[in-house]
Write a structure and sequence with these properties.
globular, four-stranded antiparallel beta sheet
């Protein structure tokens, strides 16, 4: 889910996009890569993230970064709630943002 500015329906800031994501326990996401760099915070739950082929364990309060065009996949051991923000809004305004499902 992407957070939006209630005044205009756009991104929360002119250059920053913000997101909340729920990955249910036992679920594994498809790999995806995009041109924006993202910062993630684990709000609650446990799981793993694979970034560019390397796996990392995730637990509540962990903070991690996914660089631009690095493939990411998530797997949830418990319901995994993530908050993230990125420069997607700026890239969209410049016509640069791209995403690819692996």
């Amino acid at each position: 889910m992407e957070f939006t500015n209630p005044a205009n329906g756009g991104s929360v800031m002119n250059t920053i996009s913000a997101f909340a994501q729920l990955i249910p326990a036992g679920f594994e996401t498809q790999g995806v890569k995009s041109t924006d760099g993202s910062v993630y915070v684990v709000v609650e739950g446990q799981g793993t993230v694979e970034i560019g082929g390397t796996s990392y364990r995730l637990a509540e309060s962990d903070i991690f970064v996914v660089p631009a065009w690095a493939e990411r996949k998530f797997q949830a051991r418990q319901d995994l709630v993530l908050f993230s923000f990125s420069d997607k809004a700026a890239q969209e305004r410049l016509g640069l943002w791209r995403e690819h499902l692996a």
